[in-house]
Amino acid sequence: MMGNPYILTIAGHDPCGGAGITADLKTMEDLGVHGLSACTALTVQSDTVLKKCEWTDAGLIVEQIEILMESYPVQAVKIGIIEDLEVLNTIVHLLKAKDPGIRIIWDPVLRSGSGYDFHNRIKVRDLHGILEHCDLVTPNYNEIRALSENGNTEKAIREITSRCHLFLKGGHRNDRKGMDILYRKGMPPVEFSPKDILNTDRHGSGCVLSSAIAAYLALGNSLEDSCEQAKEYTYRFLNNAPGRDRLKGITLQYISQGTTIDEHLKNIRNICVAGGDWIQLRIKDHPEKEVFEAAREAVKLCRAYGAKLIIDDHVSVAKAVGADGVHLGKNDLPAGEARKILGPGFIIGATANTTEDIEHLAGTGIDYIGLGPYRFTHTKKNLSPVLGLAGYSRIMEQLRQKKIYIPVVAIGGIGLKDMGPLSETGLQGVAVSSLLSDAKEPSTHSGLRETIARIQQYFNQTPEVASR
Ligand SMILES: Cc1ncc(COP(=O)(O)OP(=O)(O)O)c(N)n1
Ligand SMILES: Cc1nc(C(=O)O)sc1CCOP(=O)(O)O
Ligand SMILES: [Mg+2]
After folding, report:
1. Is the beta carbon of 229 within 6 A of some atom in ligand 2?
2. Mean pLDDT value across residues 123-144
3. Which residues bind 4-amino-2-methyl-5-(diphosphooxymethyl)pyrimidine (predicted)?
4. What is the pTM of this model?
5. For the chain, what is the radius of gyration of the CA atoms?
6. Which residue(s) pair with 192 in the sheet?
7. For residues 316 and 322, what is the distance between their CA atoms, to the nearest angstrom?
């Protein structure tokens, strides 16, 4: 074959570039194939919120495909979001009419990473005529469940694999998390174990995987090798995720307290020794130079114990000492300004008291929300209105309805007995200060260790287990 092979992505446009045709083209370029694109939808979204999806007229999609197929020797096609089965059917038949040998990889996006439902009522039986023309479909575990009738995923897998190959992504399965399985027509399945459990919910990861498979196939690899290499490529993509993904599984933030800077550092050390993995250095009423000195020591401590360090308020200190991130209040530097200073690698947290606050902040590219106060506390002056458990339940439900998915931690006057009820609202975790600032001496380390482990566990289990 002369030159780089051509691959066509038929998918939606994501203005933030993390998913859809932009992500597909980046992947293709990266893997040394020539990427072409036909746009099926214009979306209004960031990596956390999908607000709108305007479908491209079917005739216009057909025209885009026709000109590309007539001008370039397209070897493989990746199909992403499509308005409905009628449009999908038209596209698949058009592609096969133009080139019966073309390889079609369909990534059936039924729900976007940010929670938007595209097609939630389609079943496998509706897809028979389309699957006959595909080489490979790449649903995730939730998607295969949604496609199955009466929850019978085994039957759905059999129905698909009697027509085309199936790469079932295991990022959402509870039994064998991260285990992807390639079911080939008439051959035994091949399992691809995860190297590590990474956040497969990352916006665009499905697009990256399916375009990478298409690229590796077009480069002449076997289906099995293409899937294996594409999984490896997607692993690298997930591993290079910006701040938010690095918060996965981190559920308890300790907010430092102390009457002196030494006391802050002593408390931080105690928490790290006892298994705390997320620390916020919150020093009030000291000159920035002293906060900087303290932050330098706190970074050393946190590095030594493998904990992440967030600096309250002081963006330039966080950057100068190489902390993991910063926490911004309503009167601090706006998140967008902080991001310009810190770049994509830093975690940025921000304070909220209402659903509207969170909705606004989620659009500014921050990584987590501190939502408070839960109840009255002496630790912070000028508290916003107390939310109570009812407030958290209401706000978390509103976020689900608005399809806003961003890690939220509760804060303010939280005690051990609050962990169970709070963990059931869908929070990622809690941020506490007084609760963990009293058990100081080495003799109490085992008690502190147990308390920290219990809190972390509350938020690291499934909602069903947490409510038992
Ligand atoms: C996790 C977390 N949530 C909220 C806050 C409060 O921050 P802010 O509103 O900036 O108030 P101060 O902490 O600066 O008094 C926080 N620090 N951490
Ligand atoms: C730092 C802070 N921010 C709050 C908010 O509501 O934004 S409440 C709070 C104090 C958290 O400490 P404690 O666990 O001792 O109450
Ligand atoms: Mg602050």
Report:
1. no
2. 91
3. 280-284, 312, 351, 380
4. 0.58
5. 25
6. 180
7. 10
